[in-house]
Amino acid sequence: MNIRNYARPLLRAAIPVAVCLVPLSGWAASQSTPETDPDSGMVIAENWQVVKANCSACHSIKLVTQNHGSRAHWEYLIRWMQDTQGLWEFQPEMEDNILDYLATYYGPKSDARRAPLLPSQRPKNPYDSDSDKTVSAGTEPPA
Q1: Listed residue (59, 51, 53) closest to 86, CA to CA
Q2: Of 21, 27, 74, 79, which one has the greatest count of Cβ atoms within 10 A?
Q3: Structural domain includes residue 139
């Protein structure tokens, strides 16, 4: 039997499936990729301009867009910047809007990195001062 005889029934079955999937692929792409600002790369959504104005006053907006964290993490970073970097205090409503935006569009990523290793899973640190091994001066540390 000729290979074309096998291919025709497969093509007849595949064409209707492909025709049905084409509209779905366009819908999925439009649902999964939010619109971003071409200048900053930030997701365009409610309060994005407030975040851009406040964050880019001191540093590149890339520090925002390349990082991800929970609402608590973003709040911790704001407090750290206020305590050590001279960031001004926000009105409570504005801070809530900033944190809502950051937690929603730059929240934790589940697929970006593995979870940190537990201490019991880490190799022994050869430079740990509490180690049983001592290294005399002028010798290589243990491998």
Answers
A1: 59
A2: 74
A3: no
Query: What are the distances in angstroms from CA 114 to CA 65, 71, 118?
Result: 20, 20, 12
Contact 133, 126 (CB under 8 A): yes
Q: Indicate whether this model's pTM tops 0.85.
A: no
**What's the CA angle centered on 117, arms 63 and 76, to 5 degrees?**
35
Measured CA to CA, the distance from residue 133 to residue 136 in angstroms comes to 10
**Beta-sheet strands, E only, within 6-123:** none
The Cα 74–Cα 100 span in angstroms is 10
Q: Does residue 75 sit in the same domain as residue 89?
A: yes
Report the C-alpha gap between 45 and 132 in whole angstroms: 56
Count of domains forming the chain: 2
SS3 36: strand
Q: Per-residue pLDDT tens for 9-30?
A: 665 666 665 555 555 555 555 5
Burial of 86 (0-12, 13-18, 19+ CB in 10 A): exposed
Residue pLDDT, tens place only, 67-100: 999 999 999 999 999 999 999 999 999 999 999 9
